[in-house]
Amino acid sequence: MIRLTGNSMIIARDCINDKILKYSKESDSFTEQSSAKISREDMPFIGPGLIDLHINGVNGVDFNDTSLNDEGLLSATKYLLGMGVTEFFPTVITNSVHNTRQILSAIDKACLAQPLLDQCIGGIHLEGPFISRSDGYRGAHKKSYVMAPDWDLFCSFQRASGNRVRIISLSPEWDNAVDFIKRGKQEGLLVAIAHSRADTRQVQAAVEAGAGLSSHLGNSLPLMIPRHPNIIWDQLAEDRLYASIIADGFHLPDSFIRVVLKTKKKKTILVSDATHFSGLTAGIYETHIGNEVVLEEDGRLSIKGSGGLLAGATKLLTENVQYLISKKLADTGRAWYMASVGPAKLLGYENRQAVSRSGDFVLFNIKDGRIVIYRVYKNGKPVWNGRK
């Protein structure tokens, strides 16, 4: 049951199924309306809150900086709420064991100290260090910190996080990966395949063991891979795997997105994989690992002097939805679904799969091709109001 505060009257179009919903203060719930005095075209949309399973930072706050604290995480959370993201999974990438534990502990302490963080951070996504050591497949992860899956080490990470690690991305190419995946599945982890040069047999074995997701499919690969079989075909062919994609206009061509949508259908979900450069003005910035990156006006982020090699993402989940709609790769309902209901189903959130059952929802409209957010609710309470 939704609990709304205040006296706001809400009549809007459910962006997933186009039904008209009205909030009744007397029953404290949404009901479907067969008719309404205003036309559908004049109504705002209403949709479940967006859920980002893969995000590295936002608006100057880096989730992989050892100086991460309550203030930074709270600032990032409020910024994301303003973009319609009501739940997110700070993604901690490959680092030294000491630094990884320190960052995980900082997130846990911040959630314990700030109720809003505890509500909005659904868990932590650990991306590495159990990934491929091979160039190209490894991406920007530091090779010296990459290692084979180690359950005891992971348990130490989990203790540091206060048991908040919910997702782990790894490569099944390691000899002991299957055993690790089985244990992870038993402990309730969502195990994802990423940064991997695993062969067909290893991918299939990982799925049999419990892997359920392909992380940012189509990225973190060398420029040249075998024609077939290869890690992309093997994951596309595996019906049991969900596939997350970055639809920012830079990371994947539209033709590849179309193939994923046709193949994975409702098991396609959007992730931002955004870095802390998201939300910043265009310019040249230095990263915490010493590289310089160029952030362009359109949001493209590249390594300075590399000839345009991507250095990460800056478009948030809302902008990924917007891109799909603007390119006619998906209609509003399907695009929003991939960033809200799709992730909710993958996570097993039964109450997040419809506005009428969820307290996390967003009122928005699309004007001149852009998503304009009016209000955002978390647990039935307004947490952001963009309408003056």
Q: Can you offer a commentary on this structure?
A:
This protein has a domain at 49-278 and 313-353: TIM Barrel. The chain is of the alpha/beta class and 388 residues long. Residues 1-7 have low confidence and may be disordered. The chain has helices at 70-81, 97-113, 115-120, 151-160, 177-186, 200-209, 231-236, 254-264, 317-326, 332-339, 341-347, and strands at 11-14, 20-24, 29-33, 45-48, 50-55, 57-58, 61-62, 85-93, 124-127, 165-170, 190-193, 213-214, 242-245, 268-270, 283-286, 292-295, 301-303, 310-312, 361-367, 370-378, 381-385. It has eleven helices and 21 strands. The strands form four sheets. It has an eight-stranded parallel beta sheet, with helices on both faces. It has a seven-stranded mixed beta sheet with strand order 3-2-1-4-19-20-21, with helices on one face. Helix 1 packs across helix 2 and helix 9 runs antiparallel to helix 10 (332-339).
